[in-house]
Amino acid sequence: MNIKHLNIRIPLERESEKILHYVNHVAGETDFLTFGKGEYPLDSNGIKKSIRNLSSSKNSIMLIAELDNQIIGLASIKGYDKIRMDHVGDLGITIMKDYWGQGIGKQMVDFLLKWAKNNEFLYKVNLKVRHDNVKAIKIYKDFGFAKEGVLLDDFKVNNIYYNHILMGIKIKTL
To answer: Which of 8, 18, 127, 149 has the largest CB neighbor count within 10 A?
Structure first.
């Protein structure tokens, strides 16, 4: 597949239905996400509100990766509102399975980290990744994320428990 014309950008509120369709699709493609098929907690209006909140936040951003007018990836850094935590953002990302291994996740993480480095509030970005998601862990390590801890039995799929690895990267010197 040709990802030459990939467009990574901030979504518009009017795209909430399209995003909801994307999220419901990827939820059924992998067990690495924190939600499964039919479990995504937001409806179209909730997604609109989320886009609005993130776009007006001083330390948060949401991105979509689009190819041929189809959303194939979604990523965000969500910063905290509280003053004691507003220097930290949590990274999350999903890529449609048909596009795994083509560098889209790397492009999105690169975009997010560059944005975070230029954000006056963020000094650190954290994430959680399932311990057996080896490809994702390698990508995060390649960007400089380091393992900071493990949450034992933090994730359950089909009554099987998995650990979450906590990873973080300091993007500026405090």
So the answer is: 127
